[in-house]
Amino acid sequence: MGMVGAGWRRLVIMATVRARRASARRAHYAASTRDDLVRSAVSLFTTHGYAGTSLDTIATRARVTKGALYHHFKGKQDLFEAAFSAVERNVYSKLQRILEKSENLWVKAGLVVREYLQSCLDPAYQRIVIHEGPVVMGWQRWRDAQEGLSYGVIRDVIADLRAAGGLGGISVEVTARLVCGALSTAATMIANSPDPKRVSEETEDAVVRLLALVRAGSETQDG
Amino acid sequence: MGMVGAGWRRLVIMATVRARRASARRAHYAASTRDDLVRSAVSLFTTHGYAGTSLDTIATRARVTKGALYHHFKGKQDLFEAAFSAVERNVYSKLQRILEKSENLWVKAGLVVREYLQSCLDPAYQRIVIHEGPVVMGWQRWRDAQEGLSYGVIRDVIADLRAAGGLGGISVEVTARLVCGALSTAATMIANSPDPKRVSEETEDAVVRLLALVRAGSETQDG
DNA sequence: TTGATTGACATACTGCCGGTATGTTCGCGC
DNA sequence: GCGCGAACATACCGGCAGTATGTCAATCAA
Q: What residue ranges define each of the domains in chain B, with the CATH number in brackets?
């Protein structure tokens, strides 16, 4: 048998890449199935979790077999990390868009915090990145994988605040972790709340107020 | 065969409970093996995680078989929850001890926060309660299980602060979650740091300063 | 054009592990 | 001292991650 269930994929794609050089087709096919696998993984890991999702199910959803999966990924963890990256990059791009509209530092910080809180409400981000990420990947690797993405953005914003004399000599790294931890936890609470809308508003209110308190306290203490 | 590896246990315990009524012996034996299983589970879940620990290993460490394990617990999750409770109760008792020495509300809040941060540094608490708890038990159940324990203490402290006019009309529930999330995340960072001592001090410093900022901002805004 | 090579899969199998079903023994009430 | 049930132990099953192997087709060297 061999190539049996994958024929449809070629037919579909061939129509879209007729102009390309022939040598690129193969790679294009492969990239397509890889993306399908990642999308399938993101979907299933989000709904049923890492342990609750079998590789066979992921492969079937992507219209391939486990053999294809193991051809593209080293194993279940590797596939999870690919799913993780996909979800993280999505949030990262949103945060970046906010950074580009540069305004007052404190205003920008508020916007980034609000946007990150919103992103944390995405079920995929919440389960894959926040909850299962550290458990499945191990904390060290999880941290490294976030370094240049969403966490990096938040850390940079806080670094700017400190550089502008916003906070006292508080460690940037520590503050950034505190903020991320607080927000992701709050987002989880919102998502699991019987009345997400209300809790979400309460949370945004609390965050904004706390930020204002810190700013106020910060400006009365030092110049 | 049957009762083969459990004889030693009776011999050991019999010496310590000679004074008890005979009718209590059986229950005492059982409670002992149950505790052994929980201790074994806590130890192994802490070092190798939930997925990385087999029930056979846990049972063997407790000097019994899987049959005994399934006699005392419904399954792996149930055993995990027992381990979770054991670790949580330990932290809870520490926090309670602090509450008993009643002082200024803000001082008490600072002490509780510092103690909770310290508790979060315990590897067992960190892995079982903070990281794997929500994943293994599900967030809802995880939250409920913490309600009357460590989280309850922190929430009560914050409720006191608000009742005393400390924070503006900020939701207690939301604030408590923010604080717990921030601290547990920070603790994880400390534990995985190459220089835990330094980062720990930085974190305590940051937390104390932020608390002071909030207090300062709080007192300048409202009476 | 063709034979060899290799990438991109599919199929078949293995071992581990959680869970279950069943067996065995001993303590305890009668 | 006897039956009964609690407190275990043993044997087995099914699912699943991982591996080993097979297959086909696209590419390339000659």
A: 7-72 (1.10.10.60), 86-218 (1.10.357.10)
